[in-house]
């Protein structure tokens, strides 16, 4: 029996409860919605967590107690009959994710729930009702549902390094003889699927399900299909694409690339009738199959080919003649456990119009105006057999043709063959592309912009953050980051969306995930990814550099697997998710022990693989620097980063109440390694580490490894290197850039951090902007480096830039010890050189706002503190009489404040404030 016991944040059913002051006593609830899951069907954890928000009204709002009721039917809950669970009044002002503690929940169980809260202003009425249902909790309940497919290629397919495998079409007709009360589909379609009932597409998801290592776990999706079933004969249909299951490069580097097999499906349709009876329709050999349909090939690297002449009208409706189809065969199951997909999955999240189309010989070049990820929807009319070929790229060569060398051997080509039946509209179903430009060949007539739409595809999630400053370069970099981050969300965070890679590299997101979480509600994506990493861990403790381990890269370095820890810390700090720590602490501890046993020598961590990846090279044509003076020693990187992880493990151990011996081990080892690090790398005469690179000095300074009486001197060496050696430019790679901007600001040089952020000459983020980039490059010199490695849509070089934007420029930071922004440190770097910063962040407690504007010696700052939070607001100067909050002088406003190190620090409860400082 397989039951998932732990429920991470992505399993949470969450309500937004809006409170508004009323004329009478108490607080009124005026709105309710499901927040973290777009459709809370099929939860496969036995203790789902419930959460809700207060929206600010006239009275701020701090919850002091709550009461939850859960019932098995709507009617019972309406009558306050909580037959599953009544929490009673619980005094807890920090309750965010309340685990269900009622009667045991069984497979396919339905549950309705509501909540009321108490605040100092009174008792709320009951919220509206919300709903969730359980998925299939036991493997045995799938046992009679067999996997079906066809484990072979067909005559028109080819299986080689550049495989061409057509989509498989499956269908079955069933008879519904009674009135349907409820019907649910539970489906696993690998590698990807589209599901139809009676010709109607089920759900608005695309590229489903999210990818996993299918030998470890397989995600199933659940859909309510009550409304589409009809009395009499009904047709069930599915199309199976290849996805990551039938790997993009077959029989190529088998020592590196993991393969799984041919597409397959397992599905059950659970029908409950109004008379109380039940019927389950399962996948078996009675289903019919063909691969001779319109999708002739689909490969994530190479594209999709669709021949509309081979369409099968009515194939997914009742009465279709499938006598020429084959009987599906039973096939081997993938091997991984079956789990409900607790992430929303991918959707078409935006549609954009192209900005230009130009003829080039017998071809056309379409410009989307933006490097995007998804596909092109085309509208075309012509003769049967006319063939439109679409080839994709991120940029153009000097002659105006597509630049595709940097895509390596990815063919990135879609082909649509017309059926010749009036206006035809098409987009691919099972591939995506990273592109700005499209080369169009064979289009009948003269195409114009109206024939094309770009559809942006990524995981369905809220955009949680906005950010704008008085500096146009910073704003453009933010916009580029926004487009790059969301384009690389594909059921997991991938490194790039365009070339023959698209892998979930850990090192790209070590700090990046933290910055991304200000912009996107990415908790479900990253919680799922932690599971992927955990499942990829070897029995002896090793963690790969890519997870899921589609590529077998177990490099045993420190800096890439460290992402496992930093992402868990992000989920805890930003979302208050303690279960991420509880679930993954044992695996983290196992890896720490593995590294200590194998690579810790005389207090130093001796294994590194990538160095400070992608430092700006000395020549614009190089990918990696060859200058030893620019490189940072691998043992230094590994040791310093491992000390950082020891500090994180100490924090995690405290949160989850781990054994005291764990804490003692981490502390003792941290001290031992710090001492060894000092002895090996510190030049006491010149106050720098090793060869004095910015990264070599930055890591020990950031991680608290520098003796207190030498911190200023080490920092001065960082400044000297940036300002004099590098002429005010960045010189760090993936590792150093994770800590650069915050550390400069922390030690009083926010102005230099701003200079690095706003530079427009090489190397800098602004240099990318100046060279027409609309996403973030893989290399600082991505416009000139060898095409072997110069993706124009990577996010790893963002480092801590977005964190710096929000925490240090806007002043929106979750205080240590107050996860989920229970307390907000609002300490903007007013001395950075900017005149204006405006930012919002929709946290788990509600929206946080920080909008400040300086003019001369005057400062105006609008601050929004959400309910259930407080803010520590840092104001420049010590003269309280010059400060007004909501038009009242600070020293007579009743606001608690103190003076500290030349600043005024005010404590603000929930609310919106206008702060003015004159002179």
TrEMBL record:
<protein>
    <recommendedName>
        <fullName>alpha-L-rhamnosidase</fullName>
        <ecNumber>3.2.1.40</ecNumber>
    </recommendedName>
</protein>
<dbReference type="InterPro" id="IPR016007">
    <property type="entry name" value="Alpha_rhamnosid"/>
</dbReference>
<dbReference type="InterPro" id="IPR008928">
    <property type="entry name" value="6-hairpin_glycosidase_sf"/>
</dbReference>
<dbReference type="InterPro" id="IPR035396">
    <property type="entry name" value="Bac_rhamnosid6H"/>
</dbReference>
<dbReference type="InterPro" id="IPR008902">
    <property type="entry name" value="Rhamnosid_concanavalin"/>
</dbReference>
<dbReference type="InterPro" id="IPR035398">
    <property type="entry name" value="Bac_rhamnosid_C"/>
</dbReference>
<dbReference type="Pfam" id="PF17390">
    <property type="entry name" value="Bac_rhamnosid_C"/>
</dbReference>
<keyword id="KW-0378">Hydrolase</keyword>
<dbReference type="Pfam" id="PF25788">
    <property type="entry name" value="Ig_Rha78A_N"/>
</dbReference>
<feature type="domain" description="Alpha-L-rhamnosidase six-hairpin glycosidase">
    <location>
        <begin position="463"/>
        <end position="808"/>
    </location>
</feature>
<dbReference type="InterPro" id="IPR012341">
    <property type="entry name" value="6hp_glycosidase-like_sf"/>
</dbReference>
<dbReference type="Pfam" id="PF05592">
    <property type="entry name" value="Bac_rhamnosid"/>
</dbReference>
<dbReference type="GO" id="GO:0030596">
    <property type="term" value="F:alpha-L-rhamnosidase activity"/>
</dbReference>
<dbReference type="Pfam" id="PF17389">
    <property type="entry name" value="Bac_rhamnosid6H"/>
</dbReference>
<keyword id="KW-0732">Signal</keyword>
<feature type="domain" description="Alpha-L-rhamnosidase concanavalin-like">
    <location>
        <begin position="359"/>
        <end position="458"/>
    </location>
</feature>
<dbReference type="GO" id="GO:0005975">
    <property type="term" value="P:carbohydrate metabolic process"/>
</dbReference>
<feature type="domain" description="Alpha-L-rhamnosidase C-terminal">
    <location>
        <begin position="811"/>
        <end position="888"/>
    </location>
</feature>
<feature type="signal peptide">
    <location>
        <begin position="1"/>
        <end position="20"/>
    </location>
</feature>
<dbReference type="Pfam" id="PF08531">
    <property type="entry name" value="Bac_rhamnosid_N"/>
</dbReference>
<dbReference type="InterPro" id="IPR013783">
    <property type="entry name" value="Ig-like_fold"/>
</dbReference>
<dbReference type="InterPro" id="IPR013737">
    <property type="entry name" value="Bac_rhamnosid_N"/>
</dbReference>
<feature type="domain" description="Bacterial alpha-L-rhamnosidase N-terminal">
    <location>
        <begin position="178"/>
        <end position="350"/>
    </location>
</feature>
